[in-house]
Structures are given as structure tokens and as C-alpha cells.
Write a structure and sequence with these properties.
The chain has 408 residues and is mostly helical. The protein is built from 14 helices and eight strands. The chain has helices spanning 68-72, 103-134, 137-149, 155-172, 174-196, 200-203, 215-237, 242-250, 259-283, 287-295, 300-329, 332-337, 355-362, 371-404, and strands at 4-8, 13-18, 23-29, 36-39, 45-50, 53-58, 87-88, 99-100. A hairpin with a 4-residue loop joins strand 2 (13-18) and strand 3.
Length: 408
């Protein structure tokens, strides 16, 4: 039942083995010669008949299926065509082979964090730079608290919203969302070019630092246009079904709750953390450095890139690392907005299961003290170790950046 077995050789040496983990658990001399060996149903007792004598042994073997190779390497399970890394801790049948690889869970954790940071980091850093360096002080006093207030949103609400509303919305408007990645930058550049061509007397009517208000209608109208064009684009370019086209033409599977949804939802949750710390770091750059650079003939953009960002780089890097730590440890969003499928696939349109979500799902059902229970604690230790190493590395890099640019 536990996929283990015992063997007794001709010299009376006992061997205890486990087939799934590929482990030799014990080799011990228990008799002077060969005999008849019996194993109890629970695999905790041995009975040996040797020269008319019955010898009883107790076998303490609580977690035979756990090994380094079983946790992180590929294992060839029964009825599988090839070795694989699989997490499947329970099943509906009694004839079940536990599959306890932590590799898919760790991969899912990194995958969710990567797509969340891919969405959140550019937006948060760009917003922090504009708010701290270009935005009018009066407007900044309104915008900054509003963005920081987003941090107070419960992640369970974000996960609920992402799973029930965002996932089907993205599925129905996928061509429009991808076209938005092309249309929105072009629309913003066109709006900026048009604004620069207006008469100077007209542009001076808008106070300096309030120009971003003019982009709000541009962004909203471009987004509405892209979503309105979505059905037309799907019918024209993808024969009316983008999911079927991805599957048949590119061989890419599409799950409704996937890494794209996680990137959008968890990125929304991470943005306030990155923005707040990065904005404070940029805003705290001494004003004398900025004025001195401008007085020496540098343009505002040259001052931003070569003075302000370099001076604030330790704080910006810390903001990114804190945001990454938040994404790695997030539980409720990935629990509610993914399919919770522990697979190792970097596909943007496939789901995943993270270490934190797996602990939250399976801990209430695990047997206290059992192998599954202990492995969940091991998964928590892996998550803690990863966070610790990441924060240590981030602190070392931050200190190096601070020493390098302290002379500015």
C-alpha cells in the first residue's frame, strides 16, 4: 500500500526499500541464514521464521516516500509514461501513490510573482517618478494618498473580484486587451505631440505639473475603443475564436483563471507598496542637487536620469524587493483567481499553485504528524528561506548602491 517492500537475502541480511522515492532505507543483519519473512499490513512489524523459530521485529519507517530526489527531481510513478515532477497529496481511491514534489509549487510561486512584477513594477516606478518629480505639489497631495489607500484593500476582495469578474471579462475581450498594448502608447505619444504643437499662449493656461489630467480622457477613450474593437478583431484575425486559434495553431492551452489574471490582480495589490517607497525615495533627493544640475545646463530629463534616479536608486531597489516579497507570499489572490493546478508550465494562459496557497488549501485536511502535514511545514520553510535569501541579497545590493552614489 505504501509502495515499499522488504527483502531477505541468503545470508540473513534484511533490506528495506521504497520504490517511488528510489531509496534504500535500511540494510541490517537480522538472522544467520535465509528464512521466511512476513510484513504486517501497516508495514510496521516483521515476522521471521528461521530454523523453526519465530522472530518478531518492529519496523519504524514513518516517512519512506520522502527524499531529496522525490521532493525536487523527476520520479517515474506507476502508470506514467515518463518521469515527472508532480504534486498530488491525496486521491479518491485507497490504491494511491503519493506524489509529493515541491518543484511545481515553487515554480508556481515564482511564476505568479514574475507576472505580477512584470505588470506592477513599470507602472509603479513610472508613477512614482512622475508624482515626485513632475507633478504639481497640490495635485501630488491628492494623488499620493489615493494610491497608498489602495494598499488597504483586502486581498480576499481582490481575489474574489479577479476570479468572478476579471477572469471572464479578460477571456471575452482578449484581442482588445492585447491591442490596447499597442494602441495606448501610440495614443499617448500622439496626444503629447499634438499638445506640443498647440500655441504657447494656449498651453500656458494649464499650470505646470497638471498636464497628466489631459491624458485621462485619452487613456479612457483608447481603452473603450480597444474593447469595442475586440469582437471585430477576433472575427477578422482569429476566425471568431481566439482560444481555439491559440490551441490549434500555436498549441497553447487557455484556462480562464491563468497567470495573466494573477499578473493583473496581484500587480494591482503590489503597486501601492512599490509606489509609496519609491516615491518617497525620489522626493527626498535634496533639492540642491536638482537645482545645481539645472543651473549647470542640464535639462530636466538629464537631471532626472543622471542625478535624481541614481541618488534614489537604493530606495527604488528596496521598493522593488518589498513588492517582490509581497508577491511571493501572497495567498488569497492566487488561491481564488487561479485554477490551483500544480503544473510546471510557463504559459501565460495556464494556471499554477503557489506554496502559500497550497498550505492554505491542504493544511486543514492533513493528518497531524503525518508525512503530508510535515511536508506542508517544509513548504513553509522553503518559502521563508526564499524570502530571507532574497531580502539579504536586496540589502547587500542596496548598501552597495548607497555607497556608490553617496558622493552625488
Amino acid at each position: 500500500r505504501r509502495k515499499g517492500f522488504v527483502a531477505l537475502d541468503a545470508t540473513g541480511q534484511l533490506g528495506v526499500f521504497h520504490s517511488t522515492a528510489g531509496r534504500t532505507l535500511l540494510r541490517e543483519q537480522i538472522a544467520p541464514a535465509a528464512g521466511v519473512l512476513a510484513l504486517s499490513p501497516r508495514a510496521d512489524r516483521l515476522l521471521l521464521e528461521e530454523n523453526g523459530r519465530l522472530l518478531g521485529f518492529r519496523l519504524d519507517n514513518p516517512h519512506p516516500e520522502v527524499s531529496w530526489s522525490a521532493l525536487w527531481g523527476k520520479v517515474w510513478y506507476e502508470n506514467y509514461e515518463a518521469p515527472a515532477r508532480v504534486w498530488q497529496s491525496s486521491a479518491a481511491t485507497a490504491d494511491f501513490e503519493p506524489k509529493l514534489s515541491l518543484a511545481p509549487l515553487t515554480f508556481g510561486t515564482l511564476k505568479a510573482a514574475f507576472y505580477a512584477m512584470l505588470f506592477a513594477a513599470p507602472l509603479a516606478i513610472a508613477a512614482a517618478v512622475y508624482t515626485a518629480y513632475f507633478m504639481a505639489p497640490r495635485m501630488r497631495r491628492t494623488v499620493k494618498p489615493v494610491i497608498e489607500l489602495m494598499e488597504a484593500l483586502p486581498t480576499v476582495i481582490l481575489g474574489f473580484f479577479a476570479g468572478l469578474f476579471l477572469a471572464p471579462f479578460v477571456e471575452n475581450h482578449l484581442p482588445g486587451l492585447f491591442s490596447l498594448l499597442l494602441l495606448l502608447p501610440l495614443a499617448i505619444l500622439a496626444a503629447g505631440f499634438g499638445w506640443s504643437r498647440l500655441p504657447l499662449t494656449l498651453r500656458e493656461r494649464l499650470p505646470e505639473g497638471w498636464e497628466s489630467l489631459l491624458l485621462l480622457p485619452v487613456v479612457l477613450l483608447t481603452t473603450a475603443l480597444a474593447l469595442w474593437l475586440s469582437p471585430w478583431l477576433e472575427g477578422l484575425l482569429f476566425a471568431g475564436d481566439l482560444r481555439l486559434w491559440l490551441s490549434q495553431t500555436l498549441g497553447i492551452a487557455y484556462d480562464q483563471r491563468n497567470a495573466l489574471i494573477i499578473g493583473l490582480a496581484m500587480g494591482f495589490a503590489v503597486i501601492p507598496n512599490i509606489f509609496s517607497i519609491a516615491e518617497d525615495a525620489i522626493y527626498s533627493v535634496p533639492r540642491s542637487l536638482t537645482l545645481g544640475s539645472l543651473a549647470l545646463g542640464a535639462t530636466p530629463w538629464q537631471t532626472l536620469v543622471r542625478v535624481v534616479l541614481l541618488t534614489a536608486s537604493p530606495g527604488i531597489f528596496s521598493a522593488l524587493m518589498i513588492g517582490l516579497g509581497r508577491a511571493v507570499g501572497e495567498t488569497m489572490i492566487v488561491l481564488m483567481a487561479t485554477g490551483n493546478t500544480p503544473i510546471m508550465d510557463a504559459n501565460l494562459f495556464e494556471g499554477m499553485r503557489t506554496l502559500a496557497a497550497n498550505i492554505a488549501v491542504e493544511m486543514p485536511e492533513s493528518e497531524v504528524g503525518g508525512t503530508h502535514y510535515r511536508l506542508l511545514f517544509l513548504a513553509a520553510l522553503v518559502l521563508l528561506s526564499f524570502t530571507f535569501l532574497m531580502n539579504t541579497l536586496a540589502e547587500l545590493i542596496r548598501q552597495r548602491l548607497r555607497k556608490k552614489y553617496a558622493a552625488l
